[in-house]
Predict the 3D structure of the following.
Amino acid sequence: MEIILAGFNIDNETIQEIQSSPNGPDNLTPETISAAYARISRNPLPVNELRKIARKEVEKSRKSNETIVFGMGHSSVAEHAVFNIDVLGVSRLIVEEIEKFRLSSFTEKSQRYIHLGNDFVVPGEIAGTDLETPFIETVGAQYRLYHDLYTVLKKYVFEKYSDMANDQANLSTLEGWAKEDARYIISLATEAQLGMTINARNLELMLRRSAAHPLKEV
């Protein structure tokens, strides 16, 4: 038996730095892995050799993926290409829509552990209409109540659990309890961010469904 680590994800900025350096490689793409794995079923060569060939023939690998995935309909091949995507400046509502795709991985900005500011997203359907001003005023009122609630809840939690409050190590936990309860007043328009890891097949599905979604932000 032989087990080989075939690859792992790294920051795109790191890839760009490597590629822009003198004599930098031009084959730093997940396409070569998906192309190599697609050939396993019909090529007797060891898979690590297939990967080596694919790295030397990036354009051929790209064309092969296009033919196999779109021409022949073997979409599972696209699952071997994995991407890490930063999603910033979106509403909490959109985060919920994105996270419906459960075959992907997500880590989002927590409203339990982070004391929120006053950032929010005005929906495209409301921006520029007569509803924009009352919408902004309503969300602003929600945020003001959020901050008031947090202040009151924090005092309550620290008094109720005074024994825990005496230990510096517990302060973050106690503050988190206050944030957790205060967050229920805030809007789905609250600005959020998340990190997403997704394979190419699920990314295509996400883009297709998002393009057909009735909400502009999606």
Residues 12-80 form one domain. The chain has a mean pLDDT of 91. The beta strands are 82-91, 105-108, 191-199. The radius of gyration is 24 Å.
